[in-house]
Design goal:
Arc Repressor Mutant, subunit A; Tetracycline Repressor, domain 2; 2 domains; DNA-binding; mainly alpha; NicS_C; TetR/AcrR family transcriptional regulator; 10 helices
Length: 203
């Protein structure tokens, strides 16, 4: 059982690298087998085809970020501090895990069909949404947050502001004639996002 789990994990790591570099359409099982240093038939043993493997990689990517979010202990913080911490975490996670954005890009090119069958990602997201509801409710009770703040819209805003900036960094840098990938630019962007989110939430 340990060998089986180790092999499966090795395949997922190799597949994540391949899918993030080549996208779903460009990825090849042969190259994944080479990266994993495993027989191609073993990949088909654990995952019936490339579709199933990509779905597993996508679900694993979501599981990783959700697990990392849980370690933030947002419930123990004051509401404004918790929201700022979530913005900072999301930004830094995307910076440190560019393959996550690449895999999401590929999934969106295929209209999210790889997330429709299982529902595992929806289950993974539920605790985060519940936590955000609690943080917002606490802030509302304290009179700090607006009463109509929606946790889903809030998270999409936080994720979207980070995602768009990083996914389009090269074109944005060219259009505006400035390097938006410097440490100074990153720090300015993070501060701006915190100001935007907390400014929206303010009662």
């Amino acid at each position: 059982m340990r060998d089986a789990e180790r092999s499966r994990k090795t395949i997922l790591v190799a597949a994540k690298q391949e899918f993030s570099e080549a996208g779903f359409d460009g990825a090849r099982i042969d190259r994944i087998a080479e990266r994993a240093e495993l027989n191609k038939r073993l990949i088909y043993y654990y995952f019936t085809d490339k579709e199933a493997l990509f779905q597993a990689v996508l679900e694993e990517a979501y599981a990783d970020i959700r697990q990392a979010e849980q370690s933030l202990a947002l419930a123990s913080m004051q509401p404004a501090q918790a929201i700022a911490k979530l913005v900072e975490f999301t930004w830094n996670y995307y910076l440190q895990n560019p393959e996550f954005l690449s895999i999401l890009n590929s999934a969106n090119l295929h209209k999210g069909r790889h997330l429709e069958e299982e529902g595992r990602v929806q289950r993974l997201n539920s605790p985060l949404m519940q936590l955000l509801r609690e943080v917002l409710h606490k802030g509302q009770q304290q009179g700090d947050f607006r009463a109509d703040a929606d946790p889903v819209q809030l998270y999409i805003t936080i994720a979207g502001m980070s995602y768009f900036y990083l996914s389009n960094n090269y074109t944005l840098s060219a259009v505006f004639g400035t390097d938006l990938a410097t440490q100074t630019a990153y720090a300015e962007r993070l501060a701006h996002m915190c100001d935007v989110v907390l400014g929206y939430l303010k009662a």
